[in-house]
Amino acid sequence: MTNGFIRVAAATPDVKVADIESNVDSILTLAQTLLDKGVKIAVFPELCVTGYTCGDLFHSSLLLEKAKEGIDRIATWTLTHDIDLIVGAPLLTGDSVANSAVFIHRGIADTVIKTYLPEYNEFYERRWFVPAPKEQKAVFSTRGINIGIEICEDLWVPAPPSSTLAMQGAEVIFNLSASDDVIGKYAYTRSLISQQSARCICGYVYASAGQGESSTDLVFSPKTFIAENGSILQANDRWNPADNCSIADIDIEALRRDRLHITSFAACARRNGIEAGAIPTDGGKWDNNYLPAGRIIAPRPFVPADDKSIDERCTEIINIQTSGLATRLRAINCRKIVVGISGGLDSTLALLVAARTFDTLGIDRAGIIGVTMPGFGTTDRTYDNALELMRALGVTIREIPIAAAVMQHFSDIGHDKDVHDVTYENSQARERTQILMDIANAENGIVLGTGDLSELALGWATYNGDHISMYGVNAGVPKTLVRYLVNWFATRADSPGLKSTLLDIVDTPISPELIPADSKGNIKQKTEDLVGPYDLHDFFLYYTLRYGFSPRRIYYLARIAFAGQFDCAFILKWLRVFFRRFFAQQFKRSCLPDGPKVGSVCLSPRGDWRMPSDASSALWLKEIDSLQA
């Protein structure tokens, strides 16, 4: 492994049926190409040493003898080439022939026999082969990981061997296959591989026979897939003769974390009397310049990357938020919501969700009371956008300036109004929250919180101020996704005015607007200047919560994801800020209002994240200090 990744390949060489010497040449030529690309383990198709479509030639003593010699030749080659190969061949076992996968590692060959032999198509494998014995070794340790091997039909049965292999400790499953092509089968196979990798929390590497197999009754196209925990990382173009392999780095560290965290995985193994093998202690090497192949390190992991899934993903997110709020309103028999509207992203998304919720429940939007509360730092831009947004959505508008009340409060507590410190800022935030709470009491409604997941992670909220609400509809939505969702609403707005307002809100700098504007009336207090770019913080947050990665690995991934956008020193600076604030601000999350989980992570103390408020960040900060920019 390198940096917790292992580079694997699924490859389909051209074969000539029964021409073993030619086939081995083809395998080794392709293996050399893969080696040159840094591949450490490669799988080739079922019976690729002879070809899958040999038929009754599988009982030819000459074919079997030369197949064994072919395996020996490949094994000898691996003595001087740093790559493990998994190839398929018919091999004698006692007085029978077995459809075998041969794992070849530094000259040593281990054999795994196919468990389930098909009898339902043109190739009645039981005519030539015997199935695997009930007990056989199919998990091997190599290059710091555990791998498992199954063959073609094994994947298609109700209880695939790979499920057992995974519970025995296999972290990557390799499948040697010879799957013919009929309408609809490709999509089904792709889905099957993806689902099995998710079920087994593993990498799954699949290579199927293709060019050169007999077309007497069937057609074989070279199909290669590499999947990881439910996602297809790479797949070749099976109808392009030149595209005969897939290469990708599988994230072993991420898989190991999920197996630890999802305790039902180990529980299933114990229930089935399976004892998991030990995780290899060889952690591999570390190389800051290593670039994982065949996978994208997205700079915005919370944001949909596939344009085809944008509408589906955004609709699902909004529906989750809407359903959560609707359920709460029904449960407490409430028909009014009070929400502070600042003209910023978070309150905009909350208001859009509230409007959709009221439509879903058949409640007049007039029951949504939007309150704009201009203060010392409110600019004309955000003020105007707040009003335009509320008008466009048809909610009840209230405007309550807070300057006078806050000045009275300063006088009461003896604070100098010219000292723009945390007291100056938080007094405004708490005044706004008090107004919202009191209006909610008067209207028999609830206060809808607007704070998002990123602010919760950084503690960028005033305790007992905007930190508090009766329901936090954005609690599971990080800032980068908030911006994305508001933009998505804009592209689907039913009026030009609403669209224009939403797009301007998206383009407005993120700010709490608690410090007076500059001499030109522009926002002076920009959040990302103070706590760092949300692009970085959301990236740090994702890999901290989703995978529990160390600062060293997060920094390594961030360097790849943000290459050309942020330099290393800049990333390190804000990584330190993130972990310092993440630990120090846990006390705010410990009393977090209810709110719906939207994605794979959240910070609710009642759900995904449970951490003592006085946990020390020393280990994490020490590792960050040891990193080189």
Structural class determined from secondary elements: alpha/beta
Shape: elongated
Helical residue percent band: 25-40%
Q: Approximately how much beta-strand content do the residues carry?
A: 15-25%
- Backbone CA Rg: 30 Å
The number of strands is 17
Average of pLDDT: 95
Q: What topology, given as strand order, has the largest sheet?
A: 5-4-3-2-1-12
List low-confidence stretches: none
**Biggest beta sheet summary:** 6 strands, mixed
Alpha carbon gap, first and last residue = 23 Å
What is the number of helices? 20
Description:
This protein is α/β, with parallel strands linked by helices and 629 residues long. Helices cover 40% and strands 15% of the residues. It contains 20 helices and 17 strands. It has helices spanning 20-36, 61-78, 161-167, 185-199, 252-261, 263-271, 310-331, 345-361, 380-393, 403-413, 422-443, 453-458, 479-491, 496-507, 527-531, 534-545, 551-561, 568-584, 586-589, 618-626; strands at residues 5-11, 41-43, 84-93, 96-105, 108-113, 139-142, 145-151, 172-177, 203-208, 223-228, 231-235, 245-251, 337-340, 368-372, 396-399, 446-449, 471-472. Strands 5-4-3-2-1-12 form a six-stranded mixed β-sheet. Strand 16 (446-449), helix 12 and strand 17 (471-472) form a beta-alpha-beta unit. The chain is elongated. The two termini are 23 Å apart.
